[in-house]
Amino acid sequence: MVRIASIAVSLLLSACAQEGDFGRPAPSAWNSLVATTGTVAARYRNEPASYFPFTDDERTLRDRAWRFLMPAAEREAFIDILANLTRTRVLPPNWRDDDVTTYHAALISGSFRSPVSRYRRLSDDITADARLIPLFVATAARVADADTLRLRSLPFVKSLDDENIRQAAMRVAENRCLVAWVRLETGVRSERYRYALQHLVIEVPSVEGVSAERSLAGLDGRRALLDPLLPLEAEARCGLVEAPAPQAALPIVAKY
Fold first, then answer.
1. Where are the domains of the chain?
2. Which residue in 21, 59, 125, 150 has its CB near the most CB atoms, within 10 A?
3. pLDDT, tens digit (0-9, with 9 covering 90-100), for 161-177
4. Which DSSP string corresponds to 243-256?
5. CB 16 within 8 A of CB 81
């Protein structure tokens, strides 16, 4: 299994990820291969990963999660590749760059005519995140409703074997952990935006900072829409953050 992941890394380093509109993965045999490899790698790590086909809403949920699971600003190609490998689960989700300074560093890198352009880019990125959150939340709610129906229907389908039941439970956990991951990453992105704004105000003061501050407040307000989707401990139960010992070993499906 490690060999499979290593081959995928080598291939991505040579060809990079193929992107479609809005930075989402383009539909192609290449990206399908990477996604399949990620599912296999996740199963090897005992993470929830079902071989069931995705519903339309499950696929849309993953498309809308893309923005939050990739870097907020262009950085070194190698880091972007690692981020894509993490998003597709070839690498574990708890491998990620927690450095709050990275967005600011990418924002001010290179030459630019006016500092105003940096403030506007910051505001645009924050606003784009804020606009996407309600769409993600609406899709996540539909997926959760479908998962509830799935679980409630299990006792009534007598022809299911143990593997069918296991795959259903894994898909429910997989969907919930994806939502938990996005909720975690929206908080990380907000912290990076705040760091960038605070440092821009010191480095190149401008009244444009007021607009960026308002955009950031709007993002934080919409981030709250993610909270009712899952219990607060979901990130820990999915292995995204360190969990207290008594809860770490409990299966996520049993809790909800």
1. 2-255
2. 125
3. 998 988 898 888 889 98
4. --HHHHTS-HHHH-
5. yes
